[in-house]
């Protein structure tokens, strides 16, 4: 019974977070000329997971081809999320290349992907309140102080962007 109440409470909190995050993203006009014209998709989080899984399997296969007899330790999660931060900031050909490499669905726009990313990050943080589970990820995008970063990107990715000295 307690687990059911906790699950319902967590779902309600996630709904509120989705609303708050999406309203911030939509009002910021950060990714497109008219961000508010993009409809928020409830499928975006599953699409994020699907792309991450496809990317991970592809990465494992490629590394295994290159060094089939060696043991390699790395985090596909960190690789994916680091490149995802680059995708959020990218445009033009770089954006398209990262979108293909990260296995992001053609139907998934940056606003929905960013919302899914933020909800997923918040959900992981909420689940860290257990003695039996801890997940820490410190992926950051380091930007030279001389590079002009749009304020909306600084607002949306404040925890992920850090200026280089």
From TrEMBL:
SUPFAM superfamilies found in the cross-reference section: Serpins (SSF56574)
Ranges where the Serpin domain occurs: 53-156
The organism's place on the tree of life at top rank: Eukaryota
Keywords: Protease inhibitor, Serine protease inhibitor
UniProt-recorded Gene Ontology molecular function terms: serine-type endopeptidase inhibitor activity
Protein name as catalogued: Serpin domain-containing protein
Species this chain originates from: Papilio machaon
